[in-house]
């Protein structure tokens, strides 16, 4: 399970350090793709295969299913960690997430999210957490 929050910078070549705690679980190669809420999702290969299989079972005749699959699969890329613990984030993914220099890597259970620092700060204020917590009961928490 991934957890924790780490701040890093993307260098001029588009390389980003992956925290060692995350690298231990991810291994040397994993998948990065467009995520929801304007961030990137990072999946360990086994988790990615599970998601791929679920997407494969979606009906081809359903327009939303096609769009959903396209969103996750077209932007997906396999990333390898270099000797310095960095990955190369493709420009198209950096553009999607608005990542120019400062990035935040966040462990959220079965995946990691990579955020542009500004977006992370804007999207993740927890002023309404009491109200959200009350509504989690309906989801079994």
Walk me through the structure.
- With 141 residues, this protein is α+β, with helices and mostly antiparallel strands.
- The chain has six helices and eight strands.
- Strands 1-7-8-4-3-5 form a six-stranded antiparallel β-sheet, sandwiched between helices. The protein has a two-stranded antiparallel ribbon with strand order 2-6.
- The protein is globular, with a radius of gyration of 16 Å.
What is the element layout, followed by pairings?
Elements: E1 2-9, E2 15-17, H1 20-26, E3 29-34, E4 40-43, H2 45-56, H3 63-74, E5 77-80, E6 86-88, H4 91-97, E7 102-109, E8 112-116, H5 117-123, H6 129-135
Antiparallel strand pairs: 1-7, 2-6, 3-4, 3-5, 4-8, 7-8
Shape: globular
The overall pLDDT average reads 94
Task: Note the total helix count.
Answer: 6
Gyration radius (Cα, Å) is 16 Å
**Biggest beta-sheet profile:** 6 strands, antiparallel
The SS-based structural class is alpha+beta
Oligomer: single chain
Please estimate the helix content: 25-40%
Number of separate strands: 8
Give the low-confidence spans.
none
Termini distance?
A: 18 Å
């Amino acid at each position: 399970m991934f957890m924790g929050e780490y701040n890093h910078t993307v260098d001029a070549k588009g390389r980003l350090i992956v925290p060692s705690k995350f690298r231990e679980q991810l291994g040397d190669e994993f998948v990065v793709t467009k995520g929801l809420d304007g961030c990137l999702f990072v999946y360990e290969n086994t988790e990615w295969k599970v998601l791929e299989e679920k997407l494969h079972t979606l009906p081809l005749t359903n327009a939303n299913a096609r769009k959903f699959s396209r969103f996750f699969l077209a932007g997906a890329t396999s990333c390898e960690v270099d000797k310095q613990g960095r990955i190369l984030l493709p420009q198209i993914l950096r553009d999607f997430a608005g990542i120019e220099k400062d990035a935040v890597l966040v462990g959220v259970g079965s995946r990691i999210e990579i955020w542009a620092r500004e977006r992370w700060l804007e999207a993740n204020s927890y002023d309404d957490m009491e109200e959200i917590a009350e509504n989690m009961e309906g989801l079994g928490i």
